Amino acid sequence: MDLDLNYCLIPIYKISLRNLEAKLDQEKLGRQRAETQAQEKARELSMLTVDNRQLQYRLDKIEADLRQESDKVSVSGSTRTTLIFG
């Protein structure tokens, strides 16, 4: 009985090729998901950066207003002292 080895190996190659194609498809899908998640995180980071800048601006303004009011109180208090003791 003479067996043609090439004929026997062809189905094995086809199965291996199908397995590799399936793995490749899974890898592509995984990469697409990862890229989508990375883009979403980049957008989130961008929005948070904008929010942070706005909050920092508000904080700086409030601190400046507080210093200005503190200076007014200091000047007002020293004027009273001068008027009372002057």
Strand-pairing-aware structural class: mainly alpha
Largest sheet: none
Mean pLDDT: 85
Low-confidence stretches: none
Helix content: over 70%
Number of strands: 0
Task: Explain what you see.
- With 86 residues, this protein is an all-alpha fold.
- Helix content is 94%, strand content 0%.
- The chain is rod-shaped and about 105 Å long.
Features:
about 90 residues
Brief rundown of the structure:
The chain is mainly alpha-helical and 86 residues long.
Secondary structure blueprint with pairings:
Blueprint lengths: L4 H81 L1
